[in-house]
Amino acid sequence: MDDAKYQELQKLEASLAGRLKVLNHDLSVEHSPNWPEQAIERENEDVLLRVQEETQSELQQVRAALKRISEGEYGICSECGQAIGSGRLAALPYATLCIECAERLEH
């Protein structure tokens, strides 16, 4: 696979790692002693926790894609072994399934 895709994934990895660092910091801030403010903070914390989980998951997928590049397996569907279309990889650079297998497995 070309170096451009590897660099794109490295940039995405750095961006996600930065986002995760900010989220971890925001989640470590102590709550206000004021009960009404604390209720709002806890609601916000729930949202931040969901975003944190999604960010961690995406970061793991990006790192797995980088590993697949280094192993020469990037862009190959893990289900059928065929090439994953360039359009799909442009939209989802860490895709592990071709569009046909992804659609089949969703149903």
TrEMBL record:
Entry keyword annotation includes Transmembrane: no
Occurrences of domain Zinc finger DksA/TraR C4-type (ranges): 72-107
Pfam (any one): zf-dskA_traR
Domain DnaK suppressor protein-like N-terminal: 9-69
Zinc finger (dksA C4-type) in chain: 77-101
Alphabetized UniProt keyword annotations: Metal-binding, Zinc, Zinc-finger
GO molecular function, one term: zinc ion binding
InterPro entries, per database record: DksA-like_N, DnaK_N, Znf_DskA_TraR, Znf_DskA_TraR_CS
Record-given protein name: TraR/DksA family transcriptional regulator
